[in-house]
Structures are given as structure tokens and as C-alpha cells.
Design brief:
Elements lengths: L5 H15 L3 E4 L5 E4 L4 E3 L2 E3 L7 E7 L9 E7 L2 E4 L7 E3 L11 E3 L8 E8 L5 E3 L1 E9 L6 E6 L7 E6 L8 E6 L11 E4 L4 E4 L8 E9 L2 E9 L4 H35 L5 E2 L15 H9 L22 E2 L1
Parallel strand pairs: 1-11, 2-12
Antiparallel strand pairs: 1-4, 3-9, 5-6, 5-10, 6-7, 8-9, 10-12, 13-14, 14-17, 15-18, 16-17, 18-19, 20-21
InterPro entries: Ig-like_dom, Ig-like_dom_sf, Ig-like_fold, Ig_sub, Ig_sub2, Ig_V-set, VSIG2
Protein name: V-set and immunoglobulin domain-containing protein 2
Keywords: Disulfide bond, Glycoprotein, Immunoglobulin domain, Membrane, Repeat, Signal, Transmembrane, Transmembrane helix
Length: about 325
């Protein structure tokens, strides 16, 4: 027996499948869909099959950047009943209900930024076989730019460089940024100004006094625009050095003031201490009595055959007595 060619075999199998039912095929737009914030989005989905008791329709959603396997249902139609589910259940419905005439278009009202993502339209109708039972629609919710935030960093003295930055926290599609200088002052030369419309950064180099002024950043997308302003003040380098020296002098004066305060307080605390008192004094045994001169003592000792000089006529040993004496 001769072998059947491949195409003939496939056609035969397809014919057998067709005898048991019709092919299920889902069609959706190939182009991404975009809807302004707060409006109603219609996600068109059509199918061809023989609708029977086993017919089932499911719409599901997956966030941007995540695989299809992580999608979660938002609406069911099965057994002749419609079942919205999930966080979007109060805002989803079908354009035709019941969806039994080949139209399974989904309506999503009051769209939010979180509605941006991929929507899956899937038809299941056994025993009909499947050629393409799943359709994917990418939806982007259009959001105007929020008011951007302007900031500045870098050296603002003559000859220095500075960076002006601008960013909006919201906006879909992502806004582009453009910096303009306000007033009648001349715009910095192209060689000293580099602008990035994607990041919103403006770099100014080789600053001069004429670079001072007010700069405005405008964030724009197809839904609108928003802006913020920033004032740039360029100073002479000498002014910066004088300001630094002045700050240094003030710090030195402050340190000296603190030291003087501590020293004065120390002396005050020392003056408040009680004076040292002595209880009295006791004369040593070899001390001379008051009124007796050193010369007299020497004469008295000479009669004994030797001359003795006391070590000190005024040396006394102080001890406590009942009569205090203040020194």
C-alpha cells in the first residue's frame, strides 16, 4: 500500500473534523486600541462557530509586561448567563447580550489608567474544533501629563555648569519635555545648551551672568500639556568666595563666644565654693613664744656652751581648735 502524502493526510483529517462540527475562529483588530481617560472603550471581537449548549465566552485581562498565563477573568458568558467578575465587574458589559450571533465585543466604561494592558477574547464551543479560538487586544488609556516638577543642580557661578530637570508623574503616552527661556533675554547658544526631550533634562555649560533668568519646562502628549518654571541665578565666582569666608568668620566668632561663656561660668562656679577654714593653730614644742626675739634665744643658748639657731621663727603647725581662724 502506498503512503499518503502529507498534505493529503492533513486534508483528510480536517475533513473528518469538519464532519463533527464547525471551526471556531476569533477575530480582533490587529492595531492597538487607545481611549481617553474617563471615556468608554469598545474592544471589538467577532467569532464564527455553531452556537450550542456548550458555547462559552470569556474575557480576561493581563497587565503590561506580564505573560498571558497571568491573566485573570473579568467577564464570563456560559449557560446563557453573563457573569462580570473582578475589580472591573461594575464597568464591563457586552455590546450584544447574549453573544450568540457572532459578536462578542466588550464595553469598558469610565476607563482608568490601570485599565491599560492586554485583553483576551476566548470562545469555547465543543465539539467544534479550534483554528483560532483566542484573540488579543492591546488597550492604552490616554492620560494628559500631570503638572511636572522642576529642579536644578550643579554650579551656578560664572563658567560653571548646571542641570535643569523636569518630570511628570502621570501621562500616557509618556510625555516629551521642552525647555524654553522666558522674557526678552537672549537664549543660550546651542553649544552651551543640551536638551533631552525624553528625560526632561536641560544641561547648561559655560554659564555667564546673562544665563540668569526664568526657564519653563513644558510636558506634552496627545492629550494635553502641563508646565513648571524655575529661576536660575548665576553669580560671580568672587561672590562665592566672599560668602564662604564670611561663613567661616561667623563660625569662628561663634566658637569663641561659646568658649568665653564656658570660661566665665567656670569662674562663677568656682567663686561660689565655700572658703577653706581652719579650726585654730597649735605651736610646735620648739617654736618661740611671741615677743622673744631670735637674738635673745641665741644668748640664752650660748650660756649652755653652744649656739643653736632655730630653723624658722615663724613656722607653725595649724590644727583645728574651738576658735576658727580664717586664712
Amino acid at each position: 500500500m502506498a503512503e499518503l502524502p502529507g498534505p493529503f493526510l492533513c486534508g483528510a483529517l480536517l475533513g473528518l473534523l469538519c464532519l463533527s462540527g464547525l471551526a471556531v475562529e476569533v477575530k480582533v483588530p490587529t492595531e492597538p486600541l487607545s481611549t481617553p481617560l474617563g471615556k468608554t472603550a469598545e474592544l471589538t471581537c467577532t467569532y464564527s462557530t455553531s452556537v450550542g449548549d456548550s458555547f462559552a465566552l470569556e474575557w480576561s485581562f493581563v497587565q503590561p509586561g506580564k505573560p498571558i498565563s497571568e491573566s485573570h477573568p473579568i467577564l464570563y458568558f456560559t449557560n446563557g448567563q453573563l457573569y462580570p467578575t473582578g475589580s472591573k465587574s461594575k464597568r464591563v458589559s457586552l455590546l450584544q447580550n447574549p453573544p450568540t450571533v457572532g459578536v462578542a465585543t466588550l464595553k469598558l466604561t469610565d476607563v482608568h489608567p490601570s485599565d491599560t494592558g492586554t485583553y483576551l477574547c476566548q470562545v469555547n464551543n465543543p465539539p467544534d474544533f479550534y483554528t483560532n479560538g483566542l484573540g488579543l487586544i492591546n488597550l492604552t488609556v490616554l492620560v494628559p501629563p500631570s503638572n511636572p516638577l522642576c529642579s536644578q543642580s550643579g554650579q551656578t557661578s560664572v563658567g560653571g555648569s548646571t542641570a535643569l530637570r523636569c518630570s511628570s508623574s502621570e501621562g500616557a503616552p509618556k510625555p516629551v519635555y521642552n525647555w524654553v527661556r522666558l522674557g526678552s533675554f537672549p537664549t543660550p547658544s546651542p553649544g552651551s545648551m543640551v536638551q533631552d526631550e525624553v528625560s526632561g533634562q536641560l544641561i547648561l555649560t559655560n554659564l555667564s551672568l546673562t544665563s540668569s533668568g526664568t526657564y519653563r519646562c513644558v510636558a506634552t502628549n496627545q492629550m494635553g500639556s502641563a508646565s513648571c518654571e524655575l529661576t536660575l541665578s548665576v553669580t560671580e565666582p568672587s561672590e562665592g568666595r566672599v560668602a564662604g569666608a564670611l561663613i567661616g568668620v561667623l563660625l569662628v566668632v561663634l566658637l569663641l563666644s561659646v568658649a568665653a561663656f564656658c570660661l566665665i561660668r567656670f569662674h562663677k562656679e568656682r567663686g561660689k565654693k565655700p572658703k577653706e577654714t581652719y579650726g585654730g593653730s597649735d605651736l610646735r614644742e620648739d617654736a618661740m613664744a611671741p615677743g622673744i626675739s631670735e637674738h635673745t634665744s641665741m644668748r640664752a643658748d650660748s650660756s649652755k656652751g653652744f649656739l643653736e639657731r632655730p630653723s624658722s621663727a615663724s613656722t607653725v603647725t595649724t590644727t583645728k581648735s574651738k576658735l576658727p581662724m580664717t586664712v
